[in-house]
Amino acid sequence: MMVDLVPVNEDVLEDLLTLAVAEAQPGEVMPPASGESPGEPRTTWTELRKGAFREYHRRCRVNPHAFVPEVTWAVKARGRIVGAARLALVDGDPEVREVGLWLGESYRGQGISSEVAYWAVAAAQTMDAKRLVARTLVGSAVARRSLERIGFEVADRDGGLVGTLTLP
Ligand SMILES: CC(C)(COP(=O)(O)OP(=O)(O)OC[C@H]1O[C@@H](n2cnc3c(N)ncnc32)[C@H](O)[C@@H]1OP(=O)(O)O)[C@@H](O)C(=O)NCCC(=O)NCCS
């Protein structure tokens, strides 16, 4: 399936939030909101979390006037917004980028993660990164399989997964 990565402008942001609320959990799609701890299970949507989702994506927009350590894109397939991907600096190390991806439940299991992986590798290479890392908080079998298929070396850590991929 052909996928596009598109900037998260305000219109796209509302479509993305609608999808996230209908077909994903806050813990899968965004960092903890202010006052929430990283280990807290985040399974339900609240107004606070919806606001934090918007602010998170606004913070992650490419800005020609300021350095942005993490950038997000919406993933589009068959003309619809189906999820979001991100690339982030890790501990300020220019050789590493953390990659993240979530899809709405009805778009999972259709091979979209492999398509997004091509884009993530290319984007990280243009940023002169040497390695990609991916982390999940829970040890999902689909996340493990999808990372392994892309070529990540996957290890269990703190109940979740850590994947590492050396870029060609
Ligand atoms: C993880 C996620 C991004 C994977 O994307 P996806 O496009 O659904 O993944 P794919 O369709 O490429 O499937 C990946 C593999 O998992 C396999 N798989 C699907 N359902 C499975 C299941 N229930 N158990 C085990 N493997 C499963 C697929 O068969 C495929 O393996 P294959 O290549 O050997 O056929 C997506 O499921 C998601 O958004 N999950 C919630 C957010 C998340 O956990 N993100 C962390 C990603 S690092």
Automatic annotation (TrEMBL):
UniProt cross-references to InterPro entries, sorted A to Z: Acyl_CoA_acyltransferase, GNAT_dom
Domain of life: Bacteria
GO MF, one example: acyltransferase activity, transferring groups other than amino-acyl groups
Gene3D superfamilies: 3.40.630.30
Pfam families registered for this protein in UniProt: Acetyltransf_3
Domain N-acetyltransferase: 3-168
Protein name: N-acetyltransferase domain-containing protein
Lineage: Bacteria, Bacillati, Actinomycetota, Actinomycetes, Micrococcales
